[in-house]
């Protein structure tokens, strides 16, 4: 727990550093007892998860935070063993049912602990089959109390799993009503990774079992959450902190560390991090490791992939030819194999390319990017769509430049 | 005349090369001589003579020619005996050879030329039937009396011909007539002139023949002929229309084979090599024949012995050389199996059957339709090779033909190999092998011919090394079309050569497919076949996979400019011509290949390295548009199981063809990139997930792979590289110590550690484990600051300590009671033993100094054996008092020193890490 990000993470709603009004509203929400489904969304690094955890703590008390690791093996009906890594506290257990890095099938988390609660964390990387579903359902039926299903990296392709699982969770009666809350909370993170089918499966379930079950959905944007689900949830946007807020958090952290952070540097860091608080804190710590005492014009470390992406964009702008496209393809492959998601690449490319574009070209390029990003979501092979975008941009840019030259000539 | 020389050359080689072939031809000749009579009978009796009439006309000239050729071939062996079998059925030694001899003697130049005539000479003395008359004229030594002429043949044998006697006999036969007539004055031309004329005539004849022979060599020996007899046979047997043309017109004889001559000849030759072992006396390979000539065997077939021994080493074909060179101890050829390979429909099976039949074998065939499990296979091989049919007419040795062997299981092929390599203990003479035959495990004495399409099937690998490999080349379209013409003519179909040629091309010279297509067309009532019908007919096209590279090549390469045109719109390459034709061609290829995924990958990997014509990248954009379209199609197909969309996939190839096809030969590489990218992505994902798996839960909930890869790791690795003074960690300032502590803490929290590794150069390095550095670092960027080896070493040591500390803490937390008890016990022990450290030491010293004479006490004061131990104990007690006294004396004083005499008095004790740290 020595990284500043982890060390100084707020644990209760009252301790949150920014968007305090929202925090107050959340507290009211908990206190009034009528807790709706939530859809928490906002860009990465804005503190969604922290806020949700604070909320849960507000709901269930400090026990939510004591976590430990556990390992379990499940035997699928096909006699196949599934190794599951679980994270557990006295109140919940997180099961990571990823199958040892092979064709990822399940991230199914479940847990039962005291006689009071059963918390389910589902982190599923489901692609096709749901063969271990039955087995898991048995477990579910045996001990049903309060469920806490968190789908970490839920990329499930099977609507069936979501449907059945949540249905079973929700259908089961709460045996002991002396618990703090009479409803169960299901936390689904990265809902935007859910397939449309799975989301559709979710919507009826949500409605049917509102009496016993609440969902907290967590995603980076609502655009990939289907309308029916959005309308069923209370949407809570967690925006990024402003530059000033980031600066104040940074200075506060440095003060706790006993360091002196010049405000210029703090500002620079917050700008460079794109107001992503996680990133900003990490950058600040990296700066401290590089050089202390801080100087105002210190070099701020940036992730390699950002630099690489920038260079790629420069390569695209500097020359437009099939050969260059081939080079760019190699670079795109490089980025993809370093676990950079294709939509991040697309976005990064667009921002870098826009810097090099004239006003009228900007809209067209942005339109192109949007078009191909959509294709990217529909398709499977990211490289085709990325390259298509690059080629299109090249063609457009080249034409634009040539027209410009002609204009110069006359 | 150099023509002459050439002629000889050819003839010499010809004899060597074509011996077997010629023999077969000769045999056929003999057969044929019987046939006309048969045919006559039939021709009279049959009522289908109208058809026959129609059929006969075009074919007869050819048969004539064929016969002539055969005749030529035969004459070459022994011109003297040629006529005998043709004219009269009883083979009697003719009287003519003497005449030849005479001419030879008269004109030495001609004697060299007339090889066949001369070849008899050296052998004649020892030969039974013809030996008697010539032995009088041909002498090995110069005759004692009378004139003689010496003749040397090309192998260096010198013989002497008695001139006078020759003249005498010659005169005896020919002079009688002229004499008598001369006396009568009927002979207008003098005998000398007549003789000259005769010589000239013969000479001309010979030249003509030899010319025809060369023709025969260069041209098609086995040219298409349709034997009227065979057709009659067919008409006789006649399941008529119910029979496939392929079967009806399958070749009956060696000469009718359409396949490549060289291949035919090689196989025949190989089969003939078995003669020695199968038929015993009949025939042996060339070197063996050499010997036999001297021994004077083989009286039954004189024309073989007439052959010249191979005086000149032929360089023609290595395969042939191999074939001729080696026979093993059982007189079997070196390779016991012939393996024919080639694409379907070229007549491999037919060739094998015909050659085996022709060589006098009874054909036993095993093919894919039979059960080919190991046991059955074993049984069948044994039956075929070890046994012989005693009943019935075909009392011939068996020849095993294993068809479609590439589909046979490996076990079966192993059995075949075992059969090949079976060995007898003793070196085999003929009699011995006969004995062995009765044993169960006897050697293979029958030829086996294997046939396959794909030579490189893994199961065939061991067999390949032991087999005589023959690959079938494509049939020549000219020959095939000729045959097709004949067939179509037989059925009254009009087909021009152009149409048939295009049919050949369409089917890739597949004989079977060609004839089937023809029959199909005939069956539909078509009486006229032209190019257009052929091209419009979709029959005859094989749906065979040509391989991905071929497909890519077809896509990226424009067809070569139209080939020579013979007719209107004829002979267009399938992919050439108008756009729609190319469209259909590529579309057909792409949809028949079926591997859309691979195909599109190959297109994607290669299209940018093609010559792209437009500078505005429009075609590239369009291509990518199509790629992304097909990607979405694929996704839809896989996701929704909507397989009806599959039909749209091959259009991608068509688009690429029209966008990027170029006349240049494309350089196509196999698409590795996507697979490579996939595996690398997997490895970096694995690194991340191993890292994630052991991160403590409280941090784990806040991170995911994506967050780790995008935000955390790049900066985390920077944070992990603080500036450390290169000194002993003990000397760190408190601030530095704190920093170090934090560093170790972070690394433990994120499940990172340094592992010592050895580079291939032998240097030691510390690398971060799990290997997340590879996930974060990019190749072309400047490397980040790295810690020094020493720093890493220090850190890893610190980490180890920290880990141990935590582990112990954990244990303490888990059972605090147990450890407490332990501690108390320890304390008790200590308390009971001694009060202070130096006193303990002192006591020891005192002991040692006082009781130095004691034997057999080990370092800790314990004895090695139980017996001395008791003694020791007793002695301990006994001497305790003085020692203690002394000890007290020493210990009581405040000042003491100790002299260490080269020994350490270490004490075993429990030491805990926390005491040291």
TrEMBL record, chain A:
Organism: Takifugu rubripes
UniProt record, GO biological process: DNA repair; DNA-templated DNA replication
Function as written in the Swiss-Prot or TrEMBL entry: Subunit of the replication factor C (RFC) complex which acts during elongation of primed DNA templates by DNA polymerases delta and epsilon, and is necessary for ATP-dependent loading of proliferating cell nuclear antigen (PCNA) onto primed DNA.
Gene Ontology CC entries for this record: DNA replication factor C complex; nucleus
InterPro entries documented for this protein: DNA_pol3_clamp-load_cplx_C (IPR008921), DNA_Rep/Repair_Clamp_Loader (IPR050238), P-loop_NTPase (IPR027417)
Family annotation (Pfam families): DNA_pol3_delta2, RCF1-5-like_lid, RFC_C
Keyword Methyltransferase: no
Gene3D superfamilies: 1.10.8.60, 1.20.272.10, P-loop containing nucleotide triphosphate hydrolases
Molecular functions (GO terms): DNA binding; DNA clamp loader activity
Stated name of the protein: Replication factor C subunit 3
Entry keywords, A to Z: DNA replication, Membrane, Transmembrane, Transmembrane helix
Subunit structure: Subunit of the RFC complex, an heteropentameric complex consisting of a large subunit RFC1 and four small subunits RFC2, RFC3, RFC4 and RFC5; the RFC complex interacts with PCNA. Forms an heterotetrameric complex with RFC2, RFC4 and RFC5; this complex has ATPase activity but is not stimulated by PCNA. The heterotetramer of subunits RFC2, RFC3, RFC4 and RFC5 interacts with RAD17. Interacts with CNTD1; this interaction facilitates crossover formation.
Residues that span the membrane, as ranges: 104-127, 133-154
From TrEMBL, chain B:
CDD domains: AAA, HLD_clamp_RFC
Any one Gene Ontology BP term: DNA replication
Keyword Cell cycle: yes
A GO cellular component entry from the record: nucleus
One example GO MF annotation: ATP hydrolysis activity
Record's compositionally biased regions (Polar residues): 295-311
Pfam families: AAA, RFC1
Presence of the UniProt keyword ATP-binding in the record: yes
Composition bias type Low complexity, residue spans: 122-135
Keyword terms of this UniProt record: ATP-binding, Cell cycle, DNA replication, DNA-binding, Nucleotide-binding, Nucleus
Protein name: Chromosome transmission fidelity protein 18 homolog
Gene field: chtf18
């Amino acid at each position: 727990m020595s990284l500043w990000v982890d060390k100084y993470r707020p644990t209760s709603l009252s301790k949150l550093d920014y968007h305090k009004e929202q925090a107050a509203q959340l507290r009211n929400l908990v206190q009034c007892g009528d807790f709706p489904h939530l859809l928490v969304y906002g860009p990465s690094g804005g503190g969604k998860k922290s806020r949700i955890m604070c909320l849960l703590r507000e709901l269930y008390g400090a026990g939510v935070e004591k976590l430990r690791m556990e390992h379990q093996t499940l035997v699928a009906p096909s006699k196949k063993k599934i190794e599951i890594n679980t994270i557990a506290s006295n109140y919940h257990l997180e099961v990571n049912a990823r199958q040892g890095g092979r064709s990822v099938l399940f991230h199914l988390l479940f847990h039962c602990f005291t006689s009071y609660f059963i918390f389910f964390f589902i982190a599923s990387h489901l692609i096709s089959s749901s063969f271990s579903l039955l087995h898991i359902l048995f477990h579910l039926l045996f001990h049903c109390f309060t469920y806490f299903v968190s789908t970490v990296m839920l990329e499930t392709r099977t609507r069936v799993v979501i449907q059945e699982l949540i249905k079973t969770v929700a259908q089961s009666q709460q045996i002991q009503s002396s618990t703090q809350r009479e409803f169960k909370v299901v936390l689904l993170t990265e809902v935007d990774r859910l397939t449309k089918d799975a989301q559709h499966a979710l919507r009826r379930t949500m409605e049917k079992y509102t009496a016993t079950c609440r969902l907290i959905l967590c995603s980076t944007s609502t655009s990939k959450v289907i309308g029916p689900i959005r309308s069923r949830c209370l949407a809570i946007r967690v925006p990024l902190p402003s530059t000033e807020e980031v600066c104040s958090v940074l200075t506060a952290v440095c003060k706790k560390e006993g360091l002196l952070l010049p405000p210029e540097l703090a500002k620079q860091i917050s700008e460079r991090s794109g107001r992503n608080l996680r990133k900003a804190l990490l950058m600040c710590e990296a700066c401290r490791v590089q050089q202390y005492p801080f100087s105002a014009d210190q070099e701020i470390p940036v992730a390699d992939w950002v630099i690489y992406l920038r260079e790629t964009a420069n390569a695209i702008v500097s020359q437009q030819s099939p050969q260059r496209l081939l080079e760019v393809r190699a670079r795109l492959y490089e980025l993809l194999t370093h676990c950079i998601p294709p939509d991040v690449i697309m976005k990064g490319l667009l921002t870098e390319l826009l810097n090099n574009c004239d006003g009228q070209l900007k809209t067209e390029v942005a339109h192109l990017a949007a078009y191909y990003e959509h294709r990217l979501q529909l398709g499977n092979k990211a490289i085709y769509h990325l390259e298509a975008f690059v080629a299109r941009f090249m063609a457009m840019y080249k034409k634009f430049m040539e027209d410009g030259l002609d204009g110069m000539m006359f | 005349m150099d023509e002459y020389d050439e002629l000889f050359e050819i003839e010499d080689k010809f004899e060597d090369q074509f011996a077997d072939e010629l023999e077969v031809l000769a045999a056929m000749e003999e057969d044929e001589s019987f046939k006309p009579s048969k045919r006559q009978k039939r021709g009279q009796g049959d009522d289908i003579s109208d058809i026959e009439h129609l059929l006969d006309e075009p074919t007869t000239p050819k048969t004539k020619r064929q016969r002539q050729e055969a005749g030529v071939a035969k004459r070459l062996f022994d011109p003297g005996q040629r006529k005998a079998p043709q004219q009269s059925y009883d083979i009697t030694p003719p009287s003519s050879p003497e005449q030849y001899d005479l001419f030879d003697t008269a004109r030495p130049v001609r004697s060299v030329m007339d090889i066949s005539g001369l070849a008899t000479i050296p052998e004649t003395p020892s030969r039974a039937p013809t030996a008697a008359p010539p032995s009088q004229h041909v002498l090995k030594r110069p005759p004692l009396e009378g004139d003689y002429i010496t003749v040397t043949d090309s192998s260096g044998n010198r013989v002497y011909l008695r001139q006078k006697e020759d003249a005498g006999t010659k005169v005896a036969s020919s002079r009688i007539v002229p004499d008598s007539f001369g006396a009568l004055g009927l002979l207008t031309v003098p005998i000398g002139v007549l003789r000259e004329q005769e010589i000239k005539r013969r000479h001309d004849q010979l030249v003509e023949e030899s010319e025809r022979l060369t023709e025969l060599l260069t041209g098609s020996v086995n040219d298409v002929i349709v034997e009227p007899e065979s057709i009659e046979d067919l008409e006789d047997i006649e399941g008529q229309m119910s029979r496939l043309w392929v079967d009806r017109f399958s070749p009956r004889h060696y000469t009718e084979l359409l396949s490549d001559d060289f291949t035919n000849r090689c196989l025949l030759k190989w089969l003939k090599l078995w003669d020695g072992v199968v038929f015993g006396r009949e025939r042996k390979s060339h070197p063996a024949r050499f010997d036999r000539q001297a021994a004077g065997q083989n009286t039954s077939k004189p024309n073989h012995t007439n052959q010249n021994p191979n005086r000149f080493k032929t360089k023609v074909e290595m395969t042939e050389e191999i074939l001729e060179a080696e026979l093993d101890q059982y007189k079997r050829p070196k390779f016991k199996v012939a393996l024919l390979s080639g694409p379907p429909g070229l007549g491999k099976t037919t060739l094998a059957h015909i050659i085996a039949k022709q060589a006098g074998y009874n054909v036993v065939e095993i093919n894919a339709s039979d059960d080919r499990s190991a046991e059955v296979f074993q049984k069948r091989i044994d039956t075929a090779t070890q046994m012989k049919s005693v009943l019935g007419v075909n009392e011939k040795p068996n020849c095993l033909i294993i068809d479609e062997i590439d589909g046979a299981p490996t076990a079966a092929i192993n059995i075949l190999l075992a059969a090949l390599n079976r060995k007898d203990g003793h070196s085999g003479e003929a009699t011995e092998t006969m004995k062995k035959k009765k044993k169960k495990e006897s050697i293979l004495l029958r030829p086996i011919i294997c046939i396959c399409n794909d030579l490189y099937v893994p199961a065939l690998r061991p067999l390949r090394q032991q087999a005589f490999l023959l690959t079938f080349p494509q049939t020549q379209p000219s020959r095939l079309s000729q045959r097709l013409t004949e067939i179509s003519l037989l059925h009254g179909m009009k087909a021009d050569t152009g149409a048939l040629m295009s049919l050949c091309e369409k089917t890739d010279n597949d004989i079977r497919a060609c004839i089937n297509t023809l029959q199909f067309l005939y069956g539909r009532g078509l009486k006229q076949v032209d190019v257009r019908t052929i091209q419009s007919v979709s029959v005859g096209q094989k749906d065979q996979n040509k391989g991905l590279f071929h497909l890519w090549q077809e896509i990226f390469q424009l067809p070569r400019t139209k080939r020579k045109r013979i007719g209107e719109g004829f002979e267009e390459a399938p992919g050439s011509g108008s756009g729609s034709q190319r469209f259909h061609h590529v579309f057909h290829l792409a949809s028949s290949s079926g591997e859309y995924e691979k195909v599109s990958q190959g297109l994607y990997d290669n299209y940018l390295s093609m010559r792209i014509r437009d500078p505005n990248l429009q075609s590239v954009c369009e291509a990518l548009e199509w790629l992304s379209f097909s990607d979405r199609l694929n996704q839809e197909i896989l996701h929704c199981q909507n397989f009806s969309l599959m039909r749209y996939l091959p259009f991608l190839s068509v688009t690429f063809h029209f966008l990027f096809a170029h006349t240049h030969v494309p350089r196509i590489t196999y698409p590795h990139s996507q697979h490579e990218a996939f595996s690398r992505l997997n490895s970096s994902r694995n690194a991340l997930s191993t890292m994630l798996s052991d991160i403590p839960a409280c941090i784990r909930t806040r991170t995911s792979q994506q967050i780790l890869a995008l935000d955390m790791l790049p900066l985390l690795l920077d944070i992990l590289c603080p500036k450390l003074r290169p000194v002993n960690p003990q000397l760190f300032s408190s601030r530095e110590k704190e920093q170090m502590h934090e560093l170790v803490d972070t690394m433990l929290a994120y499940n990172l550690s340094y592992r010592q590794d050895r580079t291939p150069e032998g240097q030691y390095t510390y690398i971060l484990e799990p290997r997340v550095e590879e996930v974060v670092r990019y190749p072309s960027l400047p490397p980040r600051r790295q810690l020094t080896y020493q720093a890493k070493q220090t850190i890893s040591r610190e980490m180890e300590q920290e880990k141990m500390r935590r582990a112990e803490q954990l244990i303490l937390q888990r059972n605090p009671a147990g450890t407490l008890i332990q501690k108390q016990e320890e304390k008790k022990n200590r308390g009971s033993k001694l009060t202070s450290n130096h006193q303990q030491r002192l006591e020891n010293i005192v002991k040692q100094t006082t009781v130095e004479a004691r034997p057999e006490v080990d370092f800790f004061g314990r004895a090695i054996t139980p017996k001395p131990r008791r003694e020791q104990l007793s002695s301990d007690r006994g001497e305790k008092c003085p020692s203690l006294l002394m000890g007290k004396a020493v210990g009581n004083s405040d000042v003491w020193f100790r002299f260490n005499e080269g020994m350490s008095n270490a004490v075993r004790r429990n030491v805990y890490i926390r005491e040291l740290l």
